[in-house]
Structures are given as structure tokens and as C-alpha cells.
Amino acid sequence: MDSQSDKALQFRQLHRGPRALVLANVWDVASARIIEESGVPAVATTSAGIAYSLGYPDGQKISREEMIARIARIARAVKVPVSADIEAGYGSTPEDAARTTQELVQAGAVGMNLEDTGGGGPGRSLLEISVAVEKIKAARLAAAQLRVPMVVNARTDVYLMPGGDATSQYDEALRRLTAYCDAGADCVFAPGLKDRETIGRLVKDVQCPLNILAVAGSPTIPELEQLGVARISLGSGPMRATLGLLQRIAAELKATGTYETLQLGVPYVDMNKLLS
Question: H or E element: which one contains 231?
């Protein structure tokens, strides 16, 4: 496990500057190799992207076994550190989070996203902070027992929940992220937050490396770096953009019977070489 431990330490250091760690999330070996080939220092998976590619909606509808199997294939295919999105740990208890972490380490990953919801879909809700904290501690302990210093990115979905005013959302997000940092998280994640001023305030108040999900309307990477954001990820955006291209190909075939959109693809020879 020495090389895996080294990768984990290397990945943790990437959260400490001087530049923000930018992660274009991947969903299979081909996407991981393409992103790695661009020269990035690490790759991260998207749970939604992996689920979609295997025929599931997002929100822990995929089994732990299928998710871990895909992550393992990605980790074997790249040389850079791999961080994996494991949603809420595929179970409601700290023991579930520990088991998932153990399997994640065995799959070759060195980082993990762990969110504080009880599952996906319209009826999802935030876990009690105490439960989320215990899951983080259990994940940290499970990785330590395998002697891999797993980088835990603890996520709160406060800003993805419907309703709530800006003040109450901020207070709750800060309360949760501070607790997660105190529980041993190396980085904390607040997807859904796009307001520049609020991001800058949270960076200062949480006193822990902060991950922001970059989407349309988010500040640019240079702007986020100026605000002190440590980690910037794209989530399922790249995978959905790829599917958007597929939609355009299908629409062109139907509308005109032409294939111009295919010119945007990676050449056949290049893909074969990349995966050889």
C-alpha cells in the first residue's frame, strides 16, 4: 500500500495551494485517460456520471458493488491519484460508511466525497449533523486501519435543498462544514453555492480547504482562486455535456442526414493509442 499512501499524501497536498486544485470529473476509463492526458495532477469521479453510464438515476440508486467496480477500473487505468464520489456511503450508518471506505481503498482510490443526505430524489433530506460526523469518523478510521491516509471531502447539500433564506442557509452550511472539519475531513464541499461574496466569506469562516462546484454562472477559476477556494470540481457537468453532444449528433442525423457534428470527436487512432 506504500505507493497508494504516497498518492494519498500527494493528493492531500494539492489542497494546500499555491493554486486551486481543479478536477474535471470522470465516469469511465476513457474519460479518465483523456483528462489525465491533459496533464492534470489528479482525477475525481462523478457518482451521477457513473450511475448514468450504467443505467441508473443519481442518488444512491446504483449498488455499492457496481460503483466500486467502476472506480477500481478507473484507478487501475491512470497513474495520478483518484478521488471517488461515494455519495452518502451507500448506507445510513457509520458502519456502512466504513465498509464502503474499506472497499474504496482496496479499489485503489486515495480520496472520497461523502455527503450528508439520506439519499437522492425529491424526498431526500439532510442527515442530523451527529450522524454525518460519525460517518466521517468511521470512514477516517477505516482508511487508517488499512494504512492509507484517505483524503475525505465532506459535502453538505444545504445549498441544494429547496427553500430557505440566504442567512439561514449560510449559518447551517457553516455549522455543518465546521463540524465535518472538526471530525477529520481534509476538505469541505458546498455544491450549489455560486455567489462570489458568500464563497469568499465561507472560505474565511470555515477555516478548512473549501471545494466549490463550478457550473454555469459560477465565478471563473481565477476568481475562485482569488477568493481562496482550494478545490474546484465540475461534477457531472462534463458527462452531461458529452451526452449533449450525442443529442446534437442524433438531431443532425434526423434533421439533415449529415454527420458534421462527428468532427468534434477524438480520432479513432488517438483513442486506441490512449488506451493501449
Answer: strand 231-233
- Tens of pLDDT along the chain (276 residues) come to 469 999 999 999 999 989 999 999 999 999 999 999 999 999 999 999 999 999 999 999 999 999 999 999 999 999 999 999 999 999 999 999 999 999 999 999 999 999 999 865 545 799 999 999 999 999 999 999 999 999 999 999 999 998 888 999 999 999 999 999 999 999 999 999 999 999 999 999 999 999 999 999 999 999 999 999 999 999 999 999 999 999 999 999 999 999 999 999 999 999 999 999
Whole-structure pTM over 0.90, yes or no? yes
Q: What does each C-alpha distance from 101 to 13, 96, 114 come to in angstroms?
A: 20, 9, 10
Here the cell at position 45 is 469521479
Q: Where are the domains of the chain?
A: 2-235
Going by C-alpha positions, the residue among 146, 150, 152, 142 that lies closest to residue 114 is 152
* Topology of the domain covering 2-235: TIM Barrel (3.20.20)
Q: Are 28 and 74 in contact (CB under 8 A)?
A: yes
Instruction: List the grid coordinates of 86.
Output: 461515494
Residue the block writes with cell 481503498: 105
Task: Give the full edge-to-edge strand order of the sheet including 151-155.
Answer: 21-23, 231-233, 210-213, 187-189, 151-155, 111-115, 82-85, 43-44
User: Is the distance from CB of 231 to CB of 24 less than 8 angstroms?
Assistant: no
8 three-state secondary structure: helix
Q: How far is CA 1 from the centre of its chain?
A: 23
Q: How many residues does the chain have?
A: 276
